[in-house]
Amino acid sequence: MALRGVWQLQKLIVNYCDWGGSSRGIRAFMESHLPAFKEKNPQLELVTELIRGQHPHLKGLYGNKNQRVICVKNMDPDEIFQYATRLRNSLGRKVVKLRTRHVTKHPSVQGTWTTDVKF
């Protein structure tokens, strides 16, 4: 995703094994979907790395020095393409858990409203 006109995903690394059964889907992805994905995203640096004996995964390196790793073992090429697109579309920010469900700039001084209020 672009933030202020700058794509946040800088580099996508595709790690796979050339003989492992769990890498069958990513090898098919590299033959069918990867060339078109590379042409549609010229701003993105795509790197394929051969790592024998390891399960395949996608690693996204972002401009804010964060990285995301997604394991894609035993997935078909269409699912892997969806995960690569999600990595490209994300901003690379860390996931922050909210403390409450209600987020306001000006919280109420009186507290939250409940049905148990008696006058």
- As for the number of domains, it is 1
H/I helix tally: 3
The CATH homologous superfamily is named Glutaredoxin
What structural category characterises the helix and strand content? alpha+beta
* The CATH architecture: 3-Layer(aba) Sandwich
Number of strands: 6
- Kindly identify the CATH topology: Glutaredoxin
**CATH class identity:** Alpha Beta
The topology string of helices and strands comes to: EEEHHEEEH
**N-end to C-end Cα span:** 51 Å
3D shape: elongated
- As a percent range, the share of strand residues is 15-25%
Q: Specify the helix fraction band.
A: 10-25%
Rg, nearest Å: 21 Å
Q: Tell me the major beta sheet.
A: 4 strands, mixed
Major β-sheet strand ordering? 4-3-5-6
Low-confidence stretches: none
Q: What is the average per-residue confidence, as pLDDT, rounded to a whole number?
A: 91
GO biological process, one term: mitochondrial translation
Organism: Ziziphus jujuba (Chinese jujube)
Domain Ribosomal protein/NADH dehydrogenase: 18-91
Subcellular location: Mitochondrion
